[in-house]
Amino acid sequence: LEEYLPDVRRAVDIYIPSIKKVIECHGDYWHCNPLKCSPNYFNKAVHLTAKEVWDRDAAKKELLEKNGYEVEVIWEDSNKMFGVA
After folding, report:
1. Which of these, 58, 57, 28, lies nearest to 43 by C-alpha position?
2. What is the pLDDT of residue 81?
3. Residue 83 has what pLDDT?
4. Is the Cα dihedral 75, 76, 78, 81 positive or negative?
5. Under a CB-based contact definition with an 8 Å cutoff, are residues 45 and 30 in contact?
6. Given this model, what pLDDT does residue 78 score?
7. 3-state secondary structure the chain
8. Measuring CA to CA, which residue among 65, 78, 69, 68 is closest to residue 31?
9. What is the pLDDT of residue 85?
């Protein structure tokens, strides 16, 4: 479902154009869930610390919001769509 938004030059997980809403689905591993990772945890797959991942995600959310998008973040551990009971 990933969608590229040319006005902000970013890809988002889900985009609902009729209400200009973005839904980002953050996997615990790839986005270093703060309930499971300390800020200095190093994610070898993305070559960043958890804090760096969080800062990157926050900057993306801020960019989207500044451009008029409503942004909702869903974490893996809190959503059945990821297969978590």
Report:
1. 28
2. 56
3. 54
4. positive
5. yes
6. 76
7. CCEEECCCCEEECEEEHHHCEEEEEECCCCCCCCCCCCCCCEECCCCEEHHHHHHHHHHHHHHHHHCCCEEEEEEHHHCHHHCCC
8. 78
9. 46
Place of tokens 């942004």: 71
- 77 token code pair: 């551990």
Tens digits of per-residue pLDDT, 27-84? 999 999 999 999 999 999 999 999 999 999 999 999 999 999 999 999 998 765 555 4
Q: How many angstroms separate the CA atoms of 58 and 56, rounded?
A: 5
